[in-house]
Amino acid sequence: MNEPPRLHIEPESELERSLLDAGRSYTASASSRANVLAALGVVGLTASSTTAAAMTKAGAVKWLAATAFLAGVAIPTVRYLAGHSAPASASARAPIANSAPAVATVPSSAPAPANTHESLPNAGDPTAAEPAVNGTANAVRVESKPAPASPLAAELSALDTARAALAAGNPTAALSGLDAYARNFPHGKLSLEAEVLRIDALAKSGQAAAAQKRAQAFMKRHPDSMLASRVRAYVGQ
Amino acid sequence: MVAAWPTSALRLPPPAPLATFQRVSRASERETRLRALVDRYLDFVARVLRNAGTPEAEIDDDVQRTFIAVSNRLDDVRPEAEKSFLLQTALRMAAHARRTLARRREVHDSDAQLRVQVPMHTEQLLDQKRARELLDQVLETMAPDLRMVFVLYELEELSMIEISSALEIPQGTVASRLRRARADFRERVRALSALPQAGVGS
User: Are B118 and B134 in contact (CB under 8 A)?
Assistant: First the structure.
């Protein structure tokens, strides 16, 4: 098909060029990537270099909150940190719930409401009371970090350490980190995320039965959680 | 005498079931794929949403919704069709946003047409924000079907074949709409340029 050259190649006026350039150069906001990844439940330390470089100190705290764990509690987390660390801004929006878009033709799976603090497991959580791992021989010492400014930031930091160990292929160290998290934050606001990480770590450390047991308990208690999709894979053995 | 092998010391822990490893592997592959999708198409999705009519304040939310939609269907989306799926989803999101905005304006806002009457000196160097505002105003006045083709061809530089596939319309229709859209766009920009200079820079 014969295609005409784009208008911006030979614009009729400077105004036309400016308008076309404005449309062609639009980019996502600086916080968008982190929020999207958090909404997708994709946890990672590997922020793009451009994103990381563009972040201010306050932005880094928000990024940590947004990406640290899974979107279920990211909204309260970001709000909490935004309230303590930096003024909220329109460009630092929290991840939205994993709900189907309000467009009839967009396919979606069953929508899962975002978790709230009320949905988080409490100290009476039966699985949380279970021993996590007995393999201390291979445990790698978890590096301690400077105490973060706020309690929730401290929780994030603790879980980030465990997650980093898991991402590095050391599930035993991750489990040790999660044990430390459970000791230090028995009523932690990120307990749900910790539990998902623990299930991941158990499975990757070869403790399939324990992972399955916890996954089943998780699904029973939180069937509509956004995190359920991550746990579901471990339920049926 | 031959020393017996300390077989108990060599015994390996029981292996995890293969199915578990496969699930873990699949979860990891899924994360990798999603991350690559976001890295590759984040700006593309945001730009399509914005140029197709999603208000600035709703871009971040709709970007997330778009990627969530593809995430929910990830197993059904072939890698070579990822961009097309994201595009179609983003266009539907934008259409929904435009309808919502239109309803809102019916109730609250009667000056939509007045906003386009912003004086503009053609030789004035436009800053990006100002240019963006004017582009929004021009695009808002275009017919939605023309706007879609215009945005995809002129701003995203998709081919007519790609546009035909994304919008599910014949290639001849794409060509026809593009011709009208370009003429319409230029006419509106000329009209904008011809407005009196009073108020420029004020």
Answer: yes
Based on the fold, state whether residues A158 and A218 are members of the same structural domain: yes
Would the CB atoms of B16 and A203 count as touching at under 8 Å?
A: yes
Min CA distance, A214 vs chain B (Å)? 14
Domain count, chain A: 2
Chain B residues whose CB is inside 8 A of the A1 CB are 159-161, 171, 175
Say if residue A168 is in the same domain as residue A123: yes
Q: How far is CA B174 from CA A9, B19, B89, B153, in A?
A: 20, 48, 19, 10
pLDDT of amino acid A225: 63
Work out the minimum CA distance from A211 to partner chain B, whole angstroms.
10
The mean pLDDT of A40-57, rounded to a whole number, is 47
Tell me, yes or no, if B118 comes closer than 8 A to chain A by beta carbon. no
Chain A and chain B share a number of CB contacts under 8 A equal to: 188
ipTM computed for the complex: 0.77
Pick from A210, A150, A209, A149: nearest CA to A178: A210
Sorting pLDDT into bands at 50, 70 and 90, what band is A194? Answer: confident
Q: Does A20 touch chain B (CB under 8 A)?
A: yes
The per-residue pLDDT of chain A, averaged, comes to: 64
| 8 A C-beta contact, residue A180 and residue A142 | yes
Sign of CA dihedral B69, B65, B143, A14: negative
Q: Residues A145, A73: one domain?
A: no
In chain B, the residue whose alpha carbon lies closest to the alpha carbon of A100 is B69
User: How far away is chain A from the Cα of B199, in angstroms, using its nearest Cα?
Assistant: 17
> Each residue of B152-191: pLDDT tens digit?
999 999 999 999 998 999 999 999 999 999 999 999 998 8
Choose one of A67, A85, A103: the last residue of a domain. A85
Could you give the domains of chain B? 27-110 (1.10.1740.10), 118-197 (1.10.10.10)
Go through B128-162 and write b for each residue having 16 or more CB atoms within 10 A of its CB, e for each that does not: eebbbbbbbbbbbbbeeebbbbbbbbbbbebebeb
3-state secondary structure of A207: coil
Neighboring chain A residues of B155 at a CB cutoff of 8 Å: 20, 23-24
Cα–Cα nearest to A8, from B173, B131, B32: B131
